[in-house]
Specification:
With 92 residues, the protein is mainly α. The chain has a domain of 45 residues. The protein contains three helices and two strands. A two-stranded antiparallel sheet has the order 1-2. A hairpin with a 5-residue loop joins strand 1 and strand 2. The longest helix has 15 residues.
Length: 92
C-alpha cells in the first residue's frame, strides 16, 4: 500500500479552510461559536460526477485553478450551469 505523505492532511486542511467563492454548503457546527462548511461529499445537495477529459486539458485547468484558489468542482458547476441557462429554451 502506498504511504501517504506526512503533510497531506495539513495541506488539505489548510486548502479547505480557505473555502472557495460561490461554494454552497451546509454549515456544520462543531463547537459553540465556530462553524465550517460540510464537505461536498457529505452534503446532500451535491452528487459525484465522473467524466473523461484529455490529460493536457486537466493539467492546464488544475494549474490555473490553484493560482486562483478555486476548486475544479466549482468550475464545472459554473460551466454546466451557464450551459443550462444558454440552452433552457431547447426541449426534447
Amino acid at each position: 500500500m502506498a504511504k501517504r505523505p506526512e503533510n497531506a492532511t495539513a495541506t488539505r486542511a489548510s486548502y479547505e479552510s480557505k473555502g472557495s467563492a460561490g461554494n454552497a454548503g451546509i454549515v456544520h457546527e462543531d463547537r459553540p461559536g465556530s462553524s465550517r462548511r460540510l464537505a461536498k461529499s457529505a452534503d446532500p445537495a451535491f452528487m459525484k460526477f465522473t467524466t473523461y477529459i484529455k490529460k493536457a486539458t486537466h493539467l492546464g485547468v488544475k494549474t490555473r485553478l490553484v493560482s486562483k484558489e478555486k476548486e475544479l468542482s466549482d468550475l464545472v458547476e459554473e460551466l454546466l450551469s451557464n450551459w443550462l441557462k444558454q440552452n433552457e429554451s431547447i426541449h426534447t
